[in-house]
Recover the amino acids of this structure.
């Protein structure tokens, strides 16, 4: 399962995953060295220190990162297919439907961040335009759900109420659905810093 | 463009000059047998030997290659005009003791305005729909008149092991022109299907399959319906001019299986029925495709799920769509509340691997036309009532005490790549940075086509012994209840879902990734998504040597099979019944 370590950059995610799949042949490595090196050298947003996870994530694991607003918070998230008699849960359009299990430690009291009383998890489109409430979370293991997007950010914000239907407060934790690993979030720097 | 997508495309350019070093044949002007294709690799999009989804890039490293196979299509050297045109499936109602002659034969089919030489049983596509009462036993005299050896496997039936139709395990293949007599017993009500178990990736894909419906003596077994329809879904891969040839001795498309670009329902491009307003139609759904998983719905018409492979569900429930894995069956009822046209669609989210982009793929498989005449009788009230099937609940009650015990056996599903093209190996490393737990379409058709069963091995691995596939030696006593955990390795060379089928027994899916199943039915085929661990409880009550395998036709032909030995206990009859 993906563990949160203090804020991490997307660039590190790529570097961590890609080389692990490149060990089959020396020729492969030779072919990849140049382009991967070039691309990894591109500037990306940096968010401080990150401990390298000991284990690779599977297709259901979400590595969660804290923001400066919750500097001591660590979290893990894992997706589970939502209840379905078919085992594989999808919408009528074929989009995977997952419940999200979030395990969180170290979040400060919401009131420490401002006029807030609760933390709420959201499923958010990569362009940040659509926020779908998943449910309230806390320093505990909570199952919230259900997702209905192909790619999404998993975001935890501080809110004035656990019943908040729209997000208002600052971001304290965020992660990217495995399906979004191929997505680029270079424009979301302020968001990932918990500025909004 | 995403960064990994950029890496992939950059690799495509870089890898092009060396790709032909991968031990592959290089495509020439003449192309593969029976295919028209250009040889101008500078116009890859125009000369593509296999259909590519619109907008999907062709990797330079793979241009000009073709899989190292002996191309094969049915009816080589046969004058097509001498072959009969396929007829629609006919219902054959049989009583216990009756005999059916079932002949696998060459025939012609007209699809999308083109005529192809394919296979069928008794001149029909699908083959005859065999309808029998529960507990019947019939005799089937099988005659092999196709140009390959064959057998008949009676998928899902817990019958006598001798008649299971598995070459090398329960019988020898039936040579061309030869016969074999099967004694087929039907212990469980529901919908089943029959198909070959020799060169399945050719014979089944070319039309050798048919349904069986087993009727319960209980007239109230299912909630009432105005009409019944048995639907078999398959897909055919065609180029502009012809079918895409198969490998005669080993499959191509060994990575993902052959996903067709023409979707067929009961062998037709556009299935159609007409019903009255408010009618409740009971559909018996069977996926006879080689590799495609479906997500079926009826334009918003309410769907009630009644039964899975071998039994009804404990509890009827409404669903928005039906996820139908390879070889699975479901029985559903659909109510068409108002006059109009309802499309039967397969709606999935496909993915361009190299770009990491999802896109919806929707295929209309058929049309249900609803006229303005009210259906009679009106079953609306019964349709809206969700029943609990107490017989099923009571039957499964006997097995709940086993749900929480540790697994008796653990299998891991994985793959061992071999002499694949270097370009494929390179691309796969990056391509699988993300993979859908269930792949609904072929997002890498060139790499898939170029991979053969001799260049990779799909693996069922026994975690305890490390033994693989047919080397696994697993015996249990008849009457055992076995808990099996199957894990689909997400970090393999090419992770993909596997529809795992167990012959001759019945099993419950009791847990997925630590989450207990809420509503059970007895199954014989279960989808194991990538990265998932699925716990199965096997009621090993039917003695014999039973195959367990991935039902993706190209995967079983690439080694993904093992044998589950149920050792007979003297005096014990089987299989167990109930539900």
């Amino acid at each position: 399962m993906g563990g949160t370590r203090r804020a991490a950059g997307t660039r590190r995610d790529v570097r961590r995953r890609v080389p692990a799949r490149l060990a089959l042949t020396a020729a492969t490595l030779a072919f990849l060295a140049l382009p991967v090196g070039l691309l990894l050298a591109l500037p990306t947003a940096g968010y401080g220190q990150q401990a390298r996870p000991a284990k690779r994530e599977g297709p259901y694991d979400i590595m969660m990162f804290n923001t400066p607003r919750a500097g001591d918070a660590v979290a893990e998230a894992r997706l589970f297919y939502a209840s379905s008699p078919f085992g594989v849960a999808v919408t009528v359009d074929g989009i995977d439907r997952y419940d999200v299990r979030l395990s969180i430690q170290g979040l400060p009291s919401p009131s420490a961040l401002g006029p807030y009383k609760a933390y709420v998890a959201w499923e958010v489109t990569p362009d940040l335009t659509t926020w779908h409430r998943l449910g309230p979370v806390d320093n505990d293991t909570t199952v919230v759900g259900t997702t209905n997007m192909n790619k999404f950010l998993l975001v935890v914000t501080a809110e004035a109420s656990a019943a908040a239907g729209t997000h208002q407060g600052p971001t304290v934790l965020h992660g990217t659905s495995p399906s979004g690993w191929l997505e680029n979030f270079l424009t979301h720097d302020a968001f990932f810093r918990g500025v909004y | 463009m995403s960064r990994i997508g950029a890496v992939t495309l950059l690799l495509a350019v870089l890898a092009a000059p060396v790709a032909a070093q991968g031990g592959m044949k290089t495509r020439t002007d003449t192309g593969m047998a029976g295919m028209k294709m250009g040889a101008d690799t500078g116009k890859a999009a125009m000369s593509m030997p296999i259909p590519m989804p619109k907008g999907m890039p062709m990797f330079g490293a793979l241009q000009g290659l073709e899989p190292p196979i002996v191309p094969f299509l049915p009816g080589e050297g046969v004058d097509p005009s001498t072959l009969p045109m396929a007829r629609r499936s006919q219902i054959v109602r049989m009583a216990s003791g009756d005999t059916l002659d079932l002949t696998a034969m060459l025939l012609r089919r007209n699809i999308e305005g083109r005529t192809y030489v394919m296979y069928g049983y008794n001149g029909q596509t699908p083959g005859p729909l065999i309808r029998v009462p529960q507990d019947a036993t019939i005799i089937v005299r099988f005659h092999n008149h196709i140009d390959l050896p064959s057998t008949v496997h009676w998928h899902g039936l817990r019958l006598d092991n001798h008649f299971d139709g598995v070459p090398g395990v329960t019988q020898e293949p039936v040579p061309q022109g030869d016969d074999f007599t099967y004694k087929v017993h039907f212990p469980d009500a529901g919908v089943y299907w029959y198909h070959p178990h020799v060169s399945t990736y050719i014979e089944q894909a070319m039309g050798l399959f048919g349904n069986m419906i087993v009727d319960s003596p209980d007239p109230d077994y299912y909630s009432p319906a105005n009409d019944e329809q048995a639907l078999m879904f398959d897909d055919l891969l065609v180029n502009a001019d012809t079918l895409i040839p198969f490998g005669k001795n080993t499959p191509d498309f060994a990575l993902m299986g052959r996903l067709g670009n023409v979707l067929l329902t009961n062998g037709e491009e556009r299935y159609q029925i007409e019903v009255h307003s408010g009618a409740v139609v009971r559909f018996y759904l069977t996926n006879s495709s080689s590799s495609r998983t479906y997500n079926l719905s009826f334009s918003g018409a309410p769907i009630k799920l009644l039964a899975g492979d071998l039994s009804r569900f404990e509890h009827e429930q409404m669903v928005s769509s039906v996820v139908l894995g390879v070889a699975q069956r479901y029985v559903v009822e659909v109510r068409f509340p108002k006059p109009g046209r309802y499309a039967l669609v397969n709606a999935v989210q496909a993915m361009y691997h190299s770009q990491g982009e999802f896109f919806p793929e929707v295929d209309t498989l058929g049309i249900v036309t609803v006229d303005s005449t009210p259906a009679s009788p009106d079953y609306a009230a019964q349709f809206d009532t969700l029943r609990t099937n107490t017989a099923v609940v009571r039957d499964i009650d006997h097995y709940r005490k086993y749900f929480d015990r540790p697994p008796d056996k653990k299998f891991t599903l994985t793959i061992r790549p071999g002499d694949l093209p270097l370009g494929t190996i390179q691309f796969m490393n990056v391509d699988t940075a993300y993979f859908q737990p269930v792949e609904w379409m072929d997002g890498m058709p060139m790499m898939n086509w170029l991979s053969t069963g001799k260049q990779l091995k799909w693996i069922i691995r026994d975690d305890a012994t490390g033994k693989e596939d047919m080397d696994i030696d697993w015996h249990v006593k008849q009457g055992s209840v076995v808990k099996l955990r199957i894990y689909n390795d997400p970090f393999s060379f090419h992770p993909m879902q596997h529809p795992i089928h167990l012959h001759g027994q019945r099993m419950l899916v009791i847990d997925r990734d630590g989450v207990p199943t809420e509503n059970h039915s007895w199954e014989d085929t279960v989808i194991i998504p990538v990265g998932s661990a699925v716990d199965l409880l096997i009621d090993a009550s039917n003695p014999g040597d039973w195959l367990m395998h991935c039902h993706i036709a190209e995967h079983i032909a690439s080694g993904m099979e093992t044998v589950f030995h149920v050792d007979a206990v003297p005096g014990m009859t089987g299989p167990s019944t109930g539900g």
Summary: Chain B has four domains: 3-66, 80-215, 227-388, 400-419+454-567.
